[in-house]
Amino acid sequence: MAAGEDCGDGHQARQYVFLLPGKHGRRVEAGVGVVHRARAQGTALSGGERAEQPEGPRLWQPGAPPSDYLKDASKKMESGLMFVKLVNPCSGEGAIYLFDMCLQQLFEIKVFKEKHHSWFINQSVQSEGHLHFATPMDPLFLVLHYLTKADKEGKFQPLDQVVVDDLFPNCILLLKLPDLEKLLRHVTEEKEIDSKKYYKYSKEKTLKWLEKKVNQTMAALKINKINVGARVQSAAFCSADQVSSDEEEDYIRYAHGLISDYIPKELSDDLSKHLKLPEPPASLPKPPSKKIKLSDEPVEAKEDYTKFNTKDLKTEKKNSKMTAAQKALAKVDKSGMKSIDSFFGAKSKKKI
Amino acid sequence: MDLSELERDNTGRCRLSSPVPAVCHKEPCVLGVDEAGRGPVLGPMVYAICYCPLSRLAKLKALKVADSKTLSESERERLFAKMKEDRDFVGWALDVLSPNLISTSMLGRVKYNLNSLSHDTAAGLVQYALDQGVKVTQVFVDTVGMPEKYQERLQQHFPGIEVTVKAKADALYPVVSAASICAKVARDQAVKNWQFVETLQDLDADYGSGYPNDPKTKAWLKKHVDPVFGFPQFVRFSWRTAQSILEKEAEGVTWEDSSTEDQEVPKRITSYFCPEGPRPRLPHRYFQERGLESATTL
Amino acid sequence: MDSGDEEASEKYRIHLRPATLRDAVPATLHLLPCEVLADRPAPVGRFFTPAIRQRPGALEVSFRGRILRGEEVVVPPSLAGYVMVMDEKAEVLAGLGKKQESRGSEKGDGEEEPQPLERDFDRFIRATASFARFHLWGLETVPGPDAKVRGALTWPSLAAAIHTQVPED
C-alpha cells in the first residue's frame, strides 16, 4: 500500500468500464444508438476504423446535405449525450440515466458489481471491477412516477407541471423526448384546450399497459431461457424443454417482479392483483433457512422465491428458528404455495 | 544437464531423467532421494532420485560421492559428469518444481504445504522409477524434520520396498549423495539460466544465495518488487520474506478467500431481516443473481 | 460524481464527448478475481500478459502467487465496450471557451433554445478506449457459464423486451 502513496504520479483517474448499445443498434436507429445521428449515417463507430478521421466538419458524409449537418453539429456536437441523476421510480432515490438528445432516447444505467474484482485496462489497474450497462429505457416509467404523485391532486394538468422535481431538476429533459405525448395515452386521460394538452393519471389504463409489459417480458424470459423457478440451477444444465404449464405462474410472477423494479410499490401491488397472482410468499416475515439444502426432504422446483434472493439464503444462519408467523403459515394451505408449506412443515416436524 | 525443456516453460513442473541402465531392469536396485533448493525464496526446488544395482554400490561409492553441500560447485559438476560416464549402471531422474508451482500450491484455496508437496514429489519419483521398470528393493530418503511419519507414509505407499527415511541420509548413503548432487546441479543450472517469464527492466542478476537471510537476496527482492504484480514468478510468493516485503511495498490485494470475518453480512441485509423497520425494496432476484444494481453515482 | 460534492450531483449533467466514442482505440481488458486496492498504472504487458498459458480447457496465469484460470468473453454483438474517464475540472474549463463560441453561433439561426443543454457547472466524461472482448479470470477455477458477470451480460436483451413499446390494442 505504502509504495502507491509514496509516488504521487502512480495514481490515476478512475476508469469506468461501459457497455453501450453497439453499432448494430445504431444502424436500425430504433432508439438504441448513442451517437449523433448525422455521424452515425454510414459510418461504423468502432475505434480502429475511424481513428484517423480528423475532428469537425470534415466528418460530413457525402450523402447528407452540408447545411443541415453543420447546423446540427454546431448545436449538438458537444451535448448530445449526457448522464444525469433522476429519480428511480422504484426506490424513489436517485439513479443515473443517460440521455441521447440526438436520438432522443433515454437509457438506464445498471452496474455489475461483485466483490473482489478489479480490472486490468491496458497498462493500468482499476480497483473496482464494475461493469456499467446502458440499456434503452421506456421513459414512461419515469413519467409515471410523477403522474402518480400528481394524481393526488386529481385534476388534468399540463405535463410541464407534472414533471417537476426540486431534487432532480434534470427531469425536465424527459419533456424533450418527442414520442412522449404519444406514449402518455397508455397511462393517462387526456384533454386538449386551446391546443394545449392536459393529462390525468389513469390507473385502469396503466394496469392494462403494465400487463402488456408483463406479457412481453414473459416472452423474453422464455426466449432467453431465464431460470424463473425456485431451484438454483446451473446455466449449464438448463434444458430448453422444461417449460410446462405448471411453470406459467412462475413466469408471470417473475415478469411482474421485474416490472415492479420500475414502478412504485402500490402500483406493483395493484398490478399483482390485476394479474390475479396469488398472495406472494414474501409476506413471510423471514425467508427460509439455508439449512433446507441439507434436509432429507427433496426440494421441489415449484417453490417461489421471487422475493427470496440469494443474499438472503447466504445470510441465513441467524434465521433458522421459526417464527410464530411461519408456524401459522405452515398450517394454512395456500394454492400455488404447496411446496413452501411442505417445506416449512418438514422443518417444524424436525424441530418438534 | 539439458534443461531446455524447463527453459521452454518454467511455470509448472518439469521431469527430466537419464535412460534406465539395462542392468537396473534385472538386478535389485538401491534408490536414493534428495532435494535441493527447499529453503530459498527464489527459484525452483529440485527433487532427485539416483539408483544403481546393489551389486554395483561399491563402484558408486568409489566415485567418492558425498553430500552435495560439502562439495564445491565444480566438484559437483565433475561428479555429475562421472555419473554420466557410469550410465551403464547408474540412473537418475528429477522433478523441477518451479517457484510459481510452489507459490500457487502453498497459497491455494486448499493449502498444499511444502512438506506434503515434497513428500508427494519424492513418492512420485520413486513410482516413476518403478514404472520405468527399475527393480527397486531399497529406498533411502533424506529428510528435514520428523523422519518417522514420512517413513511410515512411504512404506505404506511402497509395501514391497524397504524404505529408510533419515536425517542427513545424503551424507550416509552414497545413492542419496548422488541424488543430492543431481538435484543441486540441476537447481544451480536452472537458477543461473532462469528464463524470466516477465519482461523486467534492468534485471539484476546478482540475487545472492536466494536464502531469505542473505542481504543480497533481500536487496534484490526489494529492487524487483512491483506495486501491482509484486514479484516476478521467479520468487516464491509464499515465503514470509516475500510476503512482508509485499505488505510494505505493494498495493493491497483481497481475494474472496481472504479471511475477514465481517465481510459476510452487509448492513443492508441486516436491516432487511428486521421485521419492524421499514423494509427497503430490494432489486428483483434477476438483478441480485447477476450482481446488477442501478447506478447511483458516476 | 464521486468527487464529494454529492449535493450538486443531483443537478449537474455529465456530458459524454461524442467524438471520443469514435476515436476510442481498442484496449485489452482483464477482469480479475481479486480486488487490487489501487487505481494506477500497472505493467500488465510486462508481468501478466506474457505469463498467460493456454492449458487444456482454459487459460492459466498467476497473479501474486495465486493461480488464475480464465477464458475470453466476447461482448454480445449488439453492445460496444468503452472505457471512460471523467475530465478533470481544468480540462473542462479549457473546453469552456470553445463551447461558448459554438453557443454564440447558435444565436443567429432564429431557433429558440431557452436553456442550453450544457451549463457551466456541468461535467464531462470521455471514452479513452473501446473493447469488444475481455478476459474473465477465476481464482483457480474457470468462471464458466455460471459466472455472475455472464448472467449480467444477458441483461441488455431482457431490458430491450421490458422497455420496448407495447403493441397498440
Automatic annotation (TrEMBL), chain A:
Residues 278-287 have a biased composition (Pro residues). Residues 42-65, 274-299 are annotated as: Disordered. CDD domains: RNase_H2-B. GO terms for biological process: RNA catabolic process. Keywords: Nucleus. GO terms for cellular component: nucleoplasm; ribonuclease H2 complex. Residues 141-271 form the Ribonuclease H2 subunit B wHTH domain. Residues 78-138 form the Rnh202 triple barrel domain. Belongs to the RNase H2 subunit B family. Non catalytic subunit of RNase H2, an endonuclease that specifically degrades the RNA of RNA:DNA hybrids. Participates in DNA replication, possibly by mediating the removal of lagging-strand Okazaki fragment RNA primers during DNA replication. Mediates the excision of single ribonucleotides from DNA:RNA duplexes. The RNase H2 complex is a heterotrimer composed of the catalytic subunit RNASEH2A and the non-catalytic subunits RNASEH2B and RNASEH2C. PANTHER family: RIBONUCLEASE H2 SUBUNIT B. This is Ribonuclease H2 subunit B. It comes from Orycteropus afer afer. The lineage of its organism: Eukaryota, Metazoa, Chordata, Craniata, Vertebrata. The gene is RNASEH2B.
Automatic annotation (TrEMBL), chain B:
It holds the Pfam family RNase_HII. Its cofactor is Mg(2+); Mn(2+). One of its GO terms (molecular function) is RNA binding. It is an enzyme of class 3 (hydrolase). A divalent metal cation binds at D34, E35, D142. The keyword Transmembrane does not apply. Manganese or magnesium. Binds 1 divalent metal ion per monomer in the absence of substrate. May bind a second metal ion after substrate binding. GO terms for cellular component: ribonuclease H2 complex. Keywords: Endonuclease, Hydrolase, Metal-binding, Nuclease. Its EC number is 3.1.26.4. It catalyses: Endonucleolytic cleavage to 5'-phosphomonoester. The RNase H2 complex is a heterotrimer composed of the catalytic subunit RNASEH2A and the non-catalytic subunits RNASEH2B and RNASEH2C. Catalytic subunit of RNase HII, an endonuclease that specifically degrades the RNA of RNA:DNA hybrids. Participates in DNA replication, possibly by mediating the removal of lagging-strand Okazaki fragment RNA primers during DNA replication. Mediates the excision of single ribonucleotides from DNA:RNA duplexes. Endonuclease that specifically degrades the RNA of RNA-DNA hybrids. PANTHER family: RIBONUCLEASE H2 SUBUNIT A (PTHR10954). This is Ribonuclease. It comes from Orycteropus afer afer.
UniProtKB/TrEMBL annotation, chain C:
It comes from Orycteropus afer afer. This is Ribonuclease H2 subunit C. GO terms for cellular component: ribonuclease H2 complex. The gene is RNASEH2C. Residues 98-108 have a biased composition (Basic and acidic residues). CDD domains: RNase_H2-C. It holds the Pfam family RNase_H2_suC. It comes from the Eukaryota. Signal peptide: none annotated. One of its GO terms (biological process) is RNA catabolic process. Residues 94-118 are annotated as: Disordered. The lineage of its organism: Eukaryota, Metazoa, Chordata, Craniata, Vertebrata.
